[in-house]
Amino acid sequence: MVEMLTSAVDVPFCLDSANPDVLAAGLSAAPGKPLVNSVSGEEKKLGMVLPLVKERGAAVIGLTMDDNGIPKRPRNAWPLQRRSWKGQPGLASLRKMSSSTHWY
């Protein structure tokens, strides 16, 4: 699908898939700097998705939810954002590479 769209448009792609293999294929076919949508703070998903994002140099839209779901209070979202990055291999360099990382 991504390869077909690259011939039709000349804009960055925003990719979203719960399947890491599909995401990897989309990232490898996407031109320019792609954007990966809906990356949650769930430990298992972070471990699978963030290495792909780092390898490709993609930007990220992160969701403030983790294995416990969405925080009930907005003030609890900030620690979740920080915890999502902490302890992930190579994420310090990912943060520097991807200046357009947003959390919702």
- Please state the average pLDDT score: 76
Poorly predicted runs: 89-104
Cα gyration radius (Å): 14 Å
User: Structural class per helix/strand content?
Assistant: alpha/beta
What's the tally of helices?
A: 5
Spatial strand order of the main sheet: 1-2-3-4
The major β-sheet equals: 4 strands, parallel
The oligomeric status of these chains comes to: single chain
Describe the global form: elongated
Order of helices and strands: HEHEHEHHE
CA distance, first residue to last residue? 27 Å
Tally of separate domains? 1
Short overview:
With 104 residues, this protein is α/β, with parallel strands linked by helices. It is 43% helix and 13% strand. The chain has one domain.
Account of the 3D structure:
This protein is of the alpha/beta class and 104 residues long. The protein has one domain (14-103). It has helices at 2-6, 20-29, 43-56, 77-85, 91-97; strands at residues 14-15, 35-39, 59-62, 101-103. The protein has a four-stranded parallel β-sheet. Helix 2 (20-29) runs parallel beside helix 3 (43-56). It is elongated. Residues 89-104 have low confidence and may be disordered.
